[in-house]
Amino acid sequence: MYPPGMTTVTVWNEYRHERENDEVREVYPDGIHAALANALEERGHDVRTATLDEPEHGLSEDALDATDVLVWWGHKAHDEVDDEVAARVQEHVLDGMGLLVLHSGHFSKVFKGLMGTTCDLKWRAVGERERLWVVNPSHPIVDGVSEYVELPQAEMYGEPFGIPEPDELVFTSWFEGGEVFRSGCCFYRGAGRIFYFRPGHETFPIYHRDDVLGVIDNAVSWAAPTHGATTTVGNVPDPIEPLE
Amino acid sequence: MYPPGMTTVTVWNEYRHERENDEVREVYPDGIHAALANALEERGHDVRTATLDEPEHGLSEDALDATDVLVWWGHKAHDEVDDEVAARVQEHVLDGMGLLVLHSGHFSKVFKGLMGTTCDLKWRAVGERERLWVVNPSHPIVDGVSEYVELPQAEMYGEPFGIPEPDELVFTSWFEGGEVFRSGCCFYRGAGRIFYFRPGHETFPIYHRDDVLGVIDNAVSWAAPTHGATTTVGNVPDPIEPLE
Amino acid sequence: MYPPGMTTVTVWNEYRHERENDEVREVYPDGIHAALANALEERGHDVRTATLDEPEHGLSEDALDATDVLVWWGHKAHDEVDDEVAARVQEHVLDGMGLLVLHSGHFSKVFKGLMGTTCDLKWRAVGERERLWVVNPSHPIVDGVSEYVELPQAEMYGEPFGIPEPDELVFTSWFEGGEVFRSGCCFYRGAGRIFYFRPGHETFPIYHRDDVLGVIDNAVSWAAPTHGATTTVGNVPDPIEPLE
Amino acid sequence: MYPPGMTTVTVWNEYRHERENDEVREVYPDGIHAALANALEERGHDVRTATLDEPEHGLSEDALDATDVLVWWGHKAHDEVDDEVAARVQEHVLDGMGLLVLHSGHFSKVFKGLMGTTCDLKWRAVGERERLWVVNPSHPIVDGVSEYVELPQAEMYGEPFGIPEPDELVFTSWFEGGEVFRSGCCFYRGAGRIFYFRPGHETFPIYHRDDVLGVIDNAVSWAAPTHGATTTVGNVPDPIEPLE
Q1: How far is residue B36 CA from its own chain's centroid?
Q2: Could you count the other beta carbons within 10 Å of the beta carbon of residue D152?
Q3: A32: exposed, middle or buried (Cβ count in 10 Å: 0-12, 13-18, 19+)
Q4: Pairing of strands B8-13, A234-235
């Protein structure tokens, strides 16, 4: 029943920082998408990438039809994502495609559209320590994780995080500077599963860490579509039972 | 602490059916909004109304600022609601304004925007019996209700209902024709509370019933804003704790 | 990551009706446990059975240690289950063993202990039609199910069902006599997953139906333990961070 | 509709530390119950107290019948609470009595019985700084609270906290030593509302703080019973609808 076989993943990236900023390019020479794609391929997934500056941002109907799980990284160009493409992605998620939203993707059109809320938060970029505590140890997304994941240098995100109450809360972060944050959040929307995962940054080398990539790998498997029931909506003129 | 005093309610209505269709006008001669407004005034709320064909649909910033709880009825003209006004209503809900979405309002821009999902369902309009069972008997919204509310003639709405899992499920409907439906659903979004309540129709005189109006009265009180914590979002450059 | 390989299932049954009552014996000549065990074996699980009148009810520490998922059928002898054994089962569930509670098992010591609530409900045994509607079509438990499962003759269970709000609601039942019921309910408790599934009866041949057995098969796979994070509890005298 | 008028509160305390230990007596000379009772009385509630060494622990049927909200402090003598009294309290909660469980009460028979889980956690008693962040700013329990409550010296409680996913999560704690904890948790059980609130200690003077007492005051109002629907359970031999 469960998602056996290979999961087809599309890693989407704005891909701007890496081309415009030397410091970022040094950490992710081929872009954040390439780093994530390589890591997921090594872990057995079938991966392609897509970026903002491709036609339709690389997210055509065909591309999405061929995607089990979409991984989303965006940061400074959320507004440049076409409304129609954002709506298309949202529709595919509701039809069953999995979605992983990473770090600053909390402010993407796609995530805000699916949540219906502000998705706002506190932030501070001084490179402090973060410790992501597992608060739901039995969740498949934390398979193989220790009690916590510790990041020596991270951008702080703090509460209140403007999201609906997660359907499952997996991680809560502790920050050296004194804040906390719900940093691993599961949502069920339509036939799709969504995981928001906080870690990530364009200059701190967080997506080169085995523990972080292991969680992303697990989350891809968790979010992969499963078959469910066959249902219909719309007008059903004939009652099943005889009426009086 | 709790919402004592008077709650200020705005009842919003498309107000089309009642002007265009004799059968509807007979049931709601001054419009559905007038029937609901009178009922809520009699029950102690401070009520005004607004309709689609007023400037800004009667939902200017000032009007929403003065509203504790907005009641929404729409059916055949969802598309004519201006995107900007729909976004404004959504923002006010996230800032704390309560929202009651009635019957066919499940397909309004405002509700779909706040849910992030299709909000689709099955339907059949043959006038069959509906019984709304209370599944959360301790909820303040069902204060004074018996085990169920029975409607002799109703339009059927059937599962699957394309919404996020409600934060609290209060009613589930049984239909004579053989279907079931989650017909009273609470959602917390930002600082606002949302209640979706299924009963209502433009020709069945459902909003003249004391039991249905009693639930709507309770839901208005439940959705009225309460004071909460004072919080901030955005950049907080200085850590609370000293960093290493 | 997900539960591949074989799931080890223990089907537990009171096994009283079938030995004491001819009508029941005719439907389940070797007991309800045998019918369920055969069906789950045919569907690829590794199954053993246990019954009330065995020593320790067949649920010794060793037996539970060797069980991935426990299926529970009880009806008229809930009180005869030893408190210590019930507590042992509860502990194993919290440590990760899956649990399927069927039909009248809602009133078992094990289920009531895990829920903390009355688990009470309405009931009527006249053999009326039941239709279990899928309300969460994307859930793995309803893989392969149509929009609903229809049982021509069933005992009615009606709301209010005295349980905590399910973590995931999968089925809601319609009954010919006019009631509704949350009939497929998922709960996460500790490291364990629990599924309450309403269908079943000692004289209506419900566990000979392919659609019902298909759901039970799916639920076994869903409830099978997955690896999660490694965690500790208890006293941790040394702080991770230096204190002021 | 909402709980206007006076709420009747019973503050329950083990009342052992305060009589046996000079350090504790200095902080709470008349017992923790007296400190809490005075504070709640000053805030407009009608308060009585009860302690472990009274007959039936001061929690007779009559005493509970007269209680809207029970506040529970226990620490070192959980085992001395009579099973029958614990079951009685649990039953009253399911029938609608509110319950506030403070600090080490997480390990009381009453709380464990209502949760059905281990209720275990990490702990460290070295007097470090705790900061309780509001994660649900619109919740009535945090009315009047700032973004966080800061305690200069507290016992640490750390995740994983062995509870069911709270129905509403209000506070998450940051600890100086590096841990996090879900420190304000709402649960709906039967007709009753339960709030677990972490702050409190027998030697740190936490229940003399205005901010902590303000939250407890709010929580008492939130947990006070509201009228809901009238329902029945048990056998209903006659169907509402005619059967085929």
Answers
A1: 12
A2: 12
A3: buried
A4: unpaired
Mean pLDDT over C120-125 rounds to 96
Chain centre to alpha carbon of residue C171? 14
Rounded Cα distance between A14 and A76, Å, is 8
pLDDT band for position A230 (cuts 50, 70, 90): confident
Is the peptide bond preceding residue A160 cis, with omega within 30 degrees of 0? yes
Task: Look at strands A192-197 and B46-51 and give their pairing.
Answer: unpaired
More confident position, B137 or A119 = A119
Hey, are the CB atoms on B174 and C173 less than 8 Å from each other? no
Do B159 and C131 lie within an 8 Å CB cutoff? Answer: no
pLDDT of residue B97: 97
Quickly count: other Cβ atoms within 10 Å of residue D121's Cβ: 21
What is the arithmetic mean of pLDDT over D207-235?
A: 94
Give yes or no for residue A71 having a pLDDT over 90: yes
Question: Would you give the DSSP letter of residue D95?
Answer: T
**Span D225-231, mean pLDDT?**
87
| Torsion angles phi and psi, residue C228, rounded to 5 | -135, -150
Contacts of residue A84, Cβ cutoff 8 Å, sequence gap at least 6: none
Against chain C, the chains showing at least 3 CB pairs within 8 Å are A, B, D
Show Cβ contacts of residue D156 under 8 Å, excluding neighbours closer than 6 positions: C236, C239, D122, D123, D124, D125, D126, D128, D130, D175, D177, D179, D181
Q: What share of chain A is helix, strand, coil (3-state, %, to 5)?
A: 30, 30, 40
The DSSP bridge partners found for residue A175 are A130
Phi, psi (degrees; rounded to nearest 5) at A221? -65, -40
Per the rule left: phi > 0, alpha: psi between -120 and 50, beta: everything else, A103 is left
| Contact indicator for A12, A49 with CB cutoff of 8 Å | yes
Number of H helices, E strands in chain C: 7, 10
State ipTM: 0.95
Q: Give residue-wise pLDDT tens across range A33-56.
A: 999 999 999 999 999 999 999 999
Residues of chain B with pLDDT under 70: 1-5
Q: Evaluate if residue C2 carries a pLDDT over 60.
A: no
Q: What are phi and psi of A174, to 5 degrees?
A: -105, 135
List residues of D whose CB lies inside 8 A of any B CB. 1-4, 96, 131, 134, 136-140, 142-147, 167-168, 176, 188, 190-193, 218, 221-222, 225-232, 240-241
Residue-wise pLDDT tens digits, D177-204: 999 999 999 999 999 999 999 999 989 9
What pLDDT, on the 0 to 100 scale, is given for residue A231? 85
Distance from CA of D32 to the nearest CA of C (A): 24
